[in-house]
Design a protein that fits this description.
This protein has 319 residues and is mostly helical. It is built from 12 helices and 4 strands; from the N terminus they run H-H-H-H-H-E-E-H-H-H-H-E-H-H-E-H.
């Protein structure tokens, strides 16, 4: 039993180890489990009580065994008990680290100089310092070889690599998370399944004001190329998501529709409604929309196209 860790180290240490283990095993999000789950608190209380109980039992076992010892052994036992506890391993380690001579041996390393009674010890360099010094030399050589001889990746290159990696990850994430469109990232959807879904959304939410063929009623005509709030998929997505001007009656549909649904219905409006000739078209409102992304050499066709559409709808209106 000599030199055993005393109970006031043993109990808190075991308690702490069990606490860390518990936190490691229980997944409680950002907060520690002991804060989140009351059960965890009771468990740790139980652990503490158990540890104390074990200490008490050990103590009484020791007592009982002590009674069975011969007088001689009793005395030896008490003597060993009365030497104060020392952390031998820690002490040895510290001695290795500092390389100090104990005070009793200082006479061996004292120098001859005597400056007005002040004398000098020829201590070794502390090993911790020497080790660190060697480590910096090794580091320096490796560094020099890596960055100045073999032109290894410097900060700039590392930064660029990490950005490229992150961008690839973002692209991958966006590909898998279709729900994650907004007015900036939305693209016109042209496949039949998305347009069908858009049609259903349009029929159940929008026809009351825009008419099933998009000719307009309370809301403006969606078939012409004149837009109050801007044409093109990004503007139309934005209008549907955020709503029209205050008091006009077009609500912000982001409350009811998911981003992907807004993209579907916006695509449906642009692909299947816009450009068709409705039964009762409302007069065009807003401004003629020219896609700013259209390459310059295609511009005239685009405008021509839309003017013929306008002419069509005007002639229909006149009929
Ligand atoms: C309660 C009537 C109402 C409903 C329902 C409604 N809208 Fe509108 N919508 C309007 C009005 C009114 C405007 C004009 C807003 C303005 O002038 O600011 C408008 C404008 C728009 C515009 C912009 C037109 C332009 O010229 O810029 C689009 C696109 C649109 N609605 C699509 C939809 C879609 C898609 C739905 C269904 C999800 C829908 N609306 C449901 C009334 C409605």
């Amino acid at each position: 039993m000599r030199n055993m860790t005393p109970w006031w180290i043993r109990v808190p240490l075991l308690f702490f180890i069990i606490l860390v283990l518990m936190e490691y095993v229980i997944d409680s999000g950002k907060e520690p489990a002991i804060m989140v789950y009351p059960v965890a608190r009771y468990f740790m209380l139980l652990v503490l009580l158990l540890l104390i109980a074990i200490e008490l039992i050990l103590h009484s076992v020791e007592n009982v065994m002590f009674q069975t010892l011969s007088e001689d052994a009793k005395a030896r036992y008490l003597a060993s008990k009365s030497t104060p506890w020392q952390w031998q391993w820690g002490k040895n380690f510290w001695k290795k680290l500092t390389g100090n001579k104990p005070i009793e041996e200082e006479a061996e390393i004292i120098l001859d100089h005597n400056y007005d009674g002040i004398r000098e010890l020829d201590n070794n360099l502390p090993p911790w310092w020497v080790w660190m010094f060697y480590a910096t030399i090794i580091f320096g050589v490796v560094y020099l070889a890596r960055f100045h001889i073999f032109n290894g990746a410097d900060q700039k290159l590392e930064y660029e690599q990490e950005v490229a990696e992150a961008q690839a990850e973002i692209a991958e994430y966006k590909k898998n998370a279709k729900d994650l469109v907004d007015a900036n990232s939305v693209e016109l959807l042209t496949d039949a399944s998305n347009l069908d879904a858009g049609k259903k959304i349009f029929e159940s939410n929008c026809v009351a004001c825009h008419m099933p063929d998009g000719g307009g009623g309370i809301g403006p005509n969606l078939t012409d190329n004149y837009w109050i709030l801007g044409g093109g998929i990004k503007n139309v997505f934005h209008t549907i998501s955020e709503g029209g001007r205050d008091g006009k009656g077009m609500i912000a549909w982001k409350q009811t529709l998911k981003p992907i649904e807004i993209a579907q219905v916006a695509s449906y409006v642009l692909e299947d409604i816009n450009g068709k000739t409705p039964a009762n078209p409302k007069a065009p409102e807003g401004e003629l929309w020219v896609d700013p992304n259209t390459p310059k050499n295609q511009m005239p066709n685009q405008i021509q196209d839309s003017t013929t559409r306008v002419k069509d709808s005007v002639s229909v209106a006149l009929k």
